[in-house]
Specification:
Oligomer: single chain
Number of helices: 9
Number of strands: 14
CATH class of the largest domain: Alpha Beta
CATH architecture of the largest domain: 3-Layer(aba) Sandwich
Mean pLDDT: 96
Length: 266
């Protein structure tokens, strides 16, 4: 079999309910790498927040991070980066927010937040990645890969409507979870990054298997020749990728099971 590219979202997809890699998933991905297939993780997470999962595997993995704002090679070489325009980042930083909505910024090396939110750290317990609290008034908007608002979904919907109304196609706006409104530069998404990676590896989209569970996976799934949506996916996702197959639940290591079947792994 010719080399394939297997690309997967992390939370809600490749990772289990404990936000970690299951031993069967690790064994499956190692077996595929040994056969000469290429692996990639594609996540809304920060690049540094993804490194622990790659290290657990111990095999080469490309990393698409911050919803496609960054693409790193397995040796950590930065292959691509696209930041928000500084004036747009400053406008989003200054955006009035309902009480309880946290402002987060992903820069090249840091996760910044406007106030302590220790409840958010549970998602990162297996990586040790954490935020630094900063005064938004001190930020100049330079080098921001993503602005992330975390809070009540109704409040986020109001924010989204206002931001899209003002800036429209100059931004890419999506959700990684119901309580996470994510904003990148226009044209930045996992699908664009995946297309660049396929071209770099000289692999046709038809030889790409992609797995995802939320709206920020839409473009990536649309690029792949074999698109797979999790049973626990956002209810709108299957409609956005009509050719995708719906597989099992992430808590039941459905990605590993599908890969074992597809590649006839014992």
């Amino acid at each position: 079999m010719l080399p394939h590219l297997i690309v997967s979202d992390l939370d809600g997809t490749l990772l289990g309910a404990d936000h970690d890699l299951h031993p069967d998933t690790i064994a499956t991905l190692r077996a595929l790498a040994a056969q000469g297939h290429h692996l990639a993780f594609a996540s809304g997470r920060h690049y540094r927040d993804m490194l622990a999962f790659r290290e657990r595997l111990g095999v080469p993995v490309h990393l698409i991070s911050t919803n496609g704002a960054y693409l790193h090679a397995p040796d950590d070489q930065l292959l691509h980066a696209r930041h928000l325009a500084a004036e747009h980042a400053r406008e989003l930083i200054a955006q009035a927010r309902p009480a309880g909505v946290r402002l987060n910024l992903y820069q090249d090396d840091e996760w910044l937040i406007d106030a302590p939110a220790p409840e958010l750290l549970a998602l990162h317990a297996h990586t040790g990645f954490g935020y630094r609290v900063v005064d938004p008034a001190l930020l100049d908007g330079q080098g921001v890969g993503k602005v992330l608002y975390i809070g009540d979904p109704e409040h986020l919907a109001e924010l989204e409507a206002g931001i899209v109304g003002r800036l429209g196609k100059q931004l890419h706006v999506t959700y990684s979870m119901a309580n996470s409104l994510e904003i990148m530069a226009g044209g930045v998404n996992k699908g664009r990054a995946l297309t660049a990676l396929l071209e770099r590896l000289q692999i046709a989209p038809e030889a790409c298997l992609a797995f995802g569970d939320n709206l920020n996976d839409s473009e990536m799934l649309a690029v792949a020749g074999e698109a797979h949506v999790m049973a626990n996916a956002h209810p709108e996702l299957p409609g956005r990728v009509p050719g995708a197959s719906v597989i099992g639940h992430h808590a039941e290591i459905a990605v590993a099971r599908r890969l074992q079947d597809y590649f006839s792994l014992a």
